[in-house]
Records
---
Amino acid sequence: MENPFYISGLIPEEFFCDRDYETQWLVRTLQNKANVLLTSPRRMGKTQLIKHTYAQPSIKDIYYTFYVDIYPTTSINELVLFLSKEIYNVLVPKGKAVLDRFLSTIHSLSGSFGYNPITGFPSFDVKMGDIHSPQLTLEEIFNYLEHADKPCIFAIDEFQQISHYPEKNVEALLRSYIQGMNNCRFIYAGSNRHVLENMFNSAAKPFYNSAEQFYLDCIPKDIYTGFAIEQFRNSQRVLTPDAANLAYDLFEGHTYYVHNLLHNAFAYIDSNITVDKDEINRILDNTLQEKEHSFSSTLSQLNYQQKETLVAIAKEGNATGVTSVAFVKKHSLKSPSSVQYAISTLLESQLLTYENRGRIKIYRLADRFLEKWICRTY
Ligand SMILES: Nc1ncnc2c1ncn2[C@@H]1O[C@H](COP(=O)(O)OP(=O)(O)OP(=O)(O)O)[C@@H](O)[C@H]1O
Ligand SMILES: [Mg+2]
């Protein structure tokens, strides 16, 4: 029996939960020729939402849709590589005429991709070192998107990465190409809300005011739990409403974590057993136990101050006033300055995230399973 709770890869339509409003909003906004900034905490469902939107007939039948995650990129050369490879991969199945149009626009890389002279098959063999003038290639890429035979949508995930490139003018450069475009819409997505909103909301920045903004939150509880119960029922199995509610509440509806728990419940609990609250608690124990080795190894790489700060924040859940004397005292930490320093390194290694609510900074562990495990272990 196929597990209906997908925890990786593209989710088939029948196993995709809700996001009706968000999908419609995205479709409408893109059709209205606006660009979009899509943010959310990590693992809330941005990537799945973008792919789901691409699968709608009103998008799929009209547009070429592209998606790149530029998280691994650290330079404009890599950005160029990722963008051109994605366009190539999307266009290859569309046939020779469509691909030729792209190939004939990208003169600067003509030696590295095109057709294999022996087999005649299309091939893409661009290496980072082949990109000698990234600005020129970038211009050619945007030129292609502007003159493609269909309108285009390009999603660039983890877009905040471009602000870390050593080349200083990338934001301004991209913006200058994009603002003149008529044929291509952009979705800029990412989980680093603070950096992204800064890129789009400060008047001095090139992307200022250039996109409609959407913050993706949890799937509403009644919709998610209804979906989960129905998925069990479709396989002649029972998930009680109490159990569905508990799974949701354990992670405050944070999509990936709730989904992962139910994935495990579906996978590991005998199909003739009713999944009730006790079973959910048991599955949570097992899930945390399975991850124990990797969690221990993560913590073993931290120094004492980092560890005690991480533990304190895990126990708070949403931690505010972390450098106050009160917080330091409550958790028997060393000093506000040691906490401050530990936090900056924990943010860098992505064990922590934060969001700004007004002038208040709220810190939280990035991984909710790790948070639960720490609360039980320390
Ligand atoms: N609408 C949905 N229906 C069912 N499951 C979902 C849905 N949205 C997200 N998920 C679950 O959450 C997981 C994470 O989703 P996704 O990768 O889209 O999040 P993300 O916000 O892009 O995360 P990251 O910030 O790590 O890139 C999916 O693999 C899936 O298990
Ligand atoms: Mg993603």
---
Amino acid sequence: MTEITETTSWWQRLKQGLSKSTSALTQNITQLFTHRKLDQAALDELEDILIAADLGPATAAKLVADFAENRFGKDVTDSEVKDALAGQIEQLLQPAARPLVVDESKQPFVVLLVGVNGAGKTTTLGKMAAGWADQGKKVVLAAGDTFRAAAVAQLRVWGERAGCPVFTAPEGSDAAALAYKALEHAKAQGADLLLIDTAGRLQNKQGLMDELAKIKRVLQKIDASAPHATLLVLDATGGQNAHSQVKAFREMVAVDGLIVTKLDGSARGGVVVGLAEQYKLPIVAVGVGETIDDLKPFDPREYARALMGVEG
Ligand SMILES: Nc1nc2c(ncn2[C@@H]2O[C@H](COP(=O)(O)OP(=O)(O)OP(=O)(O)O)[C@@H](O)[C@H]2O)c(=O)[nH]1
Ligand SMILES: [Mg+2]
């Protein structure tokens, strides 16, 4: 019973968040396909609509080409178009929907969260910690964003909410040294997971790259296989910016998966489709709000149907 309520409210929130993307996208499709044959001009317009909805040119072209293969020259209605696209988008997203698998032989399993300022790293880390703590895992947090005192305070609040200890160092300390101590401590405590927050100063790319490389290097002095998951946090409201962030961060660290946040408030929900198609990275979770329960596994069917405004 609870599960049904939970699913419904999450689905509602996702739909609400995507409603700006969805209404522009679906209104345009409705206008285009009111009593119309699927000819080349219609296909070109459909491609433009999908690009405008942030799906990206390559993905839009692929979707339209696949769609045209079956329907070209036939009469189509707008709801057939939406249904068909929702199905295609779901298929395209399916391979990307891979939740993070925690290797329990790692004690602790070390997760590093990276991403630009404001992407939602600290919030996401707090939500992840709460989720794992709820499952009875022993989780330690490390405030690796030593650049701002406020960042440390913010993580402390999340630590309290999740009931997890937070490892901190004074503002301006070396982030790698903190990560090292946190791993030492987590290991000594027999923790299952260590989650490390980082600063997101992409404007100083070399500085950030050096910092991330150093964090990795010192962690590996203790555990040669750490970090076990490096996750890139992306803010969906930034639309196509997400692509340049993926490229920039992949030049700096080996990214194992993506977390897309703020889908509850995004007018740019289509960006997830392009990301999934282009980088083949797992989308391990999505953020749909600011509270502790607002991190969810990525569900391609729900997502595709919410985006295309197709019920259930
Ligand atoms: N609506 C909504 N807001 C979110 C979500 N995730 C994060 N936020 C908000 O986005 C803002 C930035 O989040 P942070 O977690 O501080 O982002 P950060 O990446 O740690 O930022 P820096 O530490 O400055 O690099 C905060 O106000 C969060 O509450 C989400 O899924 N939905
Ligand atoms: Mg932060």
---
Amino acid sequence: MAPCYLCPRRCGVDRESAVGFCGEGREMKIAKVMLHHFEEPCISGGEDGAGSGAVFFGGCSMKCVFCQNRDISRGGAGKTATPEELAKIMLDLKEQGAYNVNLVTPTHFADRITEALDIVKGKLNIPVVWNTSGYELPERIRALDGLVDIFLTDFKYSSPSLSAKYSAAPDYAKFAAPALAEMVKITGRPEYKGGMMTRGTIVRHLVLPGAYRDSIAVLETVADTVGAENVVLSLMAQYTPEFADEGFPELRRRITTFEYKKALARAEELGFDGYSQSVASASSRYTPDFER
Ligand code: SF4
């Protein structure tokens, strides 16, 4: 972190005294800790399950113009925590019955989190989930081997112009594809116990308004890169226009059933297993309905 090259932005700033693109300095910041019931059912256990032990980190190395969590990702929300404090939080979540520890947007604190994971090694005994935007350096993912059991990763875009326009990351797919290959190399094919995932990689993709062709290209890239049979796909329809920044009029609507069905049909042709959503889930915001 001094200089910081933790993510593909490779800002090179000294985070002891400055912040980089992610908006975060030296101290790890935690914005929220909760038992989360609305991740994919094999992570959360459904509405009536014990829930996923989610730890939301402040800041983000992406700048998505449609971000639903901007208070956390850009708003500076959160309290600082040491690796020792994070280790205690993880063990507390386990005591509360969490199925797993779910590290949400961890990339820009990867080294601090790694310290915490080293502390709880051998004591946690529940899966560790790395819940990421997918904009990762492959070598950083490789360093998580032996510490992380499940990757819950977005694959947001294929097109450089779209990723530049909506997330200020023209090189998104250039990094997301090899990073995904490293994730699958670490986890192998999905494994479950009692319906809950114990090991594996889930690829999330949110279909955006006017961009279903890019969704199809993403699905093809994922299938070509790691093989559809080696991941669980979560094809999301829950895009909500209320969060879109000014200046993007094309994002001020929900996706249509036509757009979602086009992407879903291609996912089925490619042989993916996983979750789809009803387009109506876009109205329920944080409580998407997943269908296996
Ligand atoms: S983690 Fe933050 S400071 Fe480091 S390279 Fe990424 S955006 Fe820049």
---
Amino acid sequence: MEYSLSEEQISIKDTIQRFMEKEVTREGAREIDEKDEFPMKYLKKLIDLGFMGLNVAEEYGGQGGTVVDNMIMQEEMSKICPVLAWATGNIMLYGNSIIGTNGNEVQKKKYLPKLVKGELIFAYALTEPNAGSDAASIRTKAELKDGRYVINGSKIFITGAGVADYVITNARTAESKFGGITDFIVDAKSPGFSVRPIKDLGYRGSNTCEVYYDDVEVPLENVLGGPECVNQGWDMMMRLLNEERLLLSACALGIGQGAFEYALNYAKEREQFGRPIGRFQAIQHMLVEMATELEAARQLAYYAGWRTIQGLDAVKETSMSKYFCAEVAKKVALQAVQILGGYGYTMEYDAQRYLRDVLVLSIGGGATQIQKNIIGKQLGL
Ligand SMILES: Cc1cc2nc3c(=O)[nH]c(=O)nc-3n(C[C@H](O)[C@H](O)[C@H](O)COP(=O)(O)OP(=O)(O)OC[C@H]3O[C@@H](n4cnc5c(N)ncnc54)[C@H](O)[C@@H]3O)c2cc1C
């Protein structure tokens, strides 16, 4: 198996690494977290560097890259500023990937070139107060009236909904649990559309919102994939699940790696009992386990990515990757706090931010328990 990165992938990694260290910086990441502010200023710089077209086909103005290229980018960003990685998801996953995979030709031509230029931000609204892990039980309704759909209901935990121009909205158009869901491209300026920001523990600045639809009118042409795709929303979501799991795996790897390097540097500098604490075997073993488990998680994630871009079945591998990367990163971030001792417990050091940010990665995008259910099924259980 080929393990080395291509020249293009090395260039993505190096460019993003330099950008994060020189343009975003740890201080910049801290400021975004403290102000709980969508990282628009850094997103704009990434747009200017041309990164938003990474996963868009060349005919729509993009670079035609793969999900593995995007994973490399997500991992590098997450080492210093995880919320910036999520902000790019508001263009690259909820915009580029959803429209690129499920949109019809008219929709691709209309939205993709603008997404590549960073002129549009998208959000994706599936979860509802009563439909989280059991996502297909959504109740938000879309009814056909006078040649247009009218949406009523609410969504919760929608990333970036307050800054989005369009919100891809899953709504019920028929009784059938899985076969009665349709995706709509909802203009956030529509009358009856409103949001309420929610304060989160981590990924502060990601603009998590509750979303309300009060007689929101949507033209037929805004059915994702076109009017012939009514009731195909669930199948459309399934087509993107591997990609979402891989990107969240990469976010976890980046946070884990960031927390590990932070703790490693600290352990080399902090002295107690006349020597750096990294020379105590207890601390050394902790750091060794962190490095080893992160490496194992990384191998699994990129193997799952490789299977995906080869067109091989990868449901089991992407689910394993999603849960394993999130759980390893969670453990690593917790150990980083321990290694920093009292300083790790203060808001003045970044260890706490890695820990707060990482916790959602075993909840969102299919919780660890749900990934294990999926793997169990794949094992024939
Ligand atoms: C910060 C953040 C951002 C998010 N962004 C988005 C977004 O942009 N768009 C969107 O649509 N959604 C988004 N979500 C929603 C996210 O996908 C859901 O939170 C997630 O699917 C879990 O749903 P729930 O929170 O309702 O938990 P529940 O489904 O109520 O689960 C609670 C607990 O029960 C466990 N559980 C549930 N069912 C089972 C089962 N069958 N077997 C074993 N254990 C089970 C879960 O694993 C979990 O531990 C976001 C969430 C957060 C916190």
